[in-house]
Amino acid sequence: MLKLFLQYSFSIIIPLVLFQCNSKPTENVPQSFVITDAEADSTKADYLIIYNAKCFGSAVEYAKYRHKMNPDIDIGICSYDSYKNRFQDTGTQSNPTRLFLSYAYNHWSKPPKNVFIIGKFDIVDTSKAPDFDSFTGDIDNDDTVEIAIGRLPVDDNNNVFAYLEKVISFEEQFKGRLVIASDDHCQGQNQDVLDFETNARVLSSKYGAGNCDTFFLNKYAGDTCPCVLIDSARKDLFQKLNSQPSLITFLAHYSSQQITDDPLLDSSSIKNLNIPNVYLSNVGTSDFDRSSLALSLLLKKDGGAVGLISTTDCSYLQGLVDQISEFLNTISSDHASVMGDLISKKHFRGHAYNNYTLLGDPLIRVGRI
């Protein structure tokens, strides 16, 4: 951890904007940081990190790494405490972060396109309001994401540094590999509707040019469908997931705790996933402060995931295929695309499969080489 800290604590002039909202500069902040007011119209920040006060040190180091990897963009960081009392609404459909980002979007000379939230705050009560960040990033209420928001729901520096290590590993080694996995089509009441493998093969033929691998659970079916040799299937799948950093997508039954009914992947089995990957859709998520498979993958210290985009609720297979196709279309058309590009400017409301949850840094590169 010390080696990591020293590696990115370089003493050069960094055009990084630190928004403290009228508070005095902290002694630990490098003097090369520009201190300004978040309500200043001249503010510029393509990429904004919002952090829990307990994570200040790690948030600064994360921002330095992002500047090193993305020197051409304006980066800003600010604490949640610095604006939460200044942007309040009594309505159930808003929260301080959404109101703050709305101000930035409409007033800053260069508003953020991607926002990385580090901490557990503005967790929406799902009994009163939507709990997905496609809503938080829909600034002008047109059912389209203007600001892509990703979350790392932790409240301590150690977890942020552990996540940074995984991001560095992924971005150094990712070569555009895609893995498309499918469930056993015999599971479910309607085999025609739930033919996961056929849809996975269609995606593979359309987007699998170059560095692509596939996994079909049907291959492991026992003598009586839907009996599956799950241990053998899991072993083979994990070999694929541990071979090199990849973009991974599942067409499968899933819940907030597992993928496939048996299950093929759940919180107890991910201890054997040692390579950090990015998961695109159909990975179990839940509210940001509740246990889920997606959160377990994200917070695993030595593998698992650096990023996940998933639905906030179960959805029909065709909806998932449409969503995954849209993601892969974006990646195929722009080799420099980042996770935030997969949800920015996308229409989302009206169907559960169009309500996005993005866990991890939205600036992680996912463009295929």
Q: If you compute it from the alpha carbons, what radius of gyration comes out, rounded to the nearest whole angstrom? A: 21 Å
The total domain count is 2
Sheet-strand content, in percent, reads: 15-25%
Structural class, please?
A: alpha/beta
Strands of the widest sheet, in order across it, are 2-1-4-3-5-6
Major β-sheet annotation = 6 strands, parallel
The CATH topology assignment of the largest domain is: Rossmann fold
Estimated helix fraction: 25-40%
- How far apart are the first and last residues' alpha carbons, in Å? 30 Å
Describe the global form.
Answer: globular
Which ranges are low-confidence, i.e. pLDDT below 50, for 5 or more consecutive residues?
A: 1-16, 19-36, 125-130, 187-193
Give a count of the beta strands, DSSP E runs of length 2 or more: 14
- The sequence of SSEs as H and E is HEEEHEHEHEHEHEHEEEEHEHE
What is the annotated CATH architecture of the largest domain?
3-Layer(aba) Sandwich
Q: What's the CATH class of the largest domain, please?
A: Alpha Beta
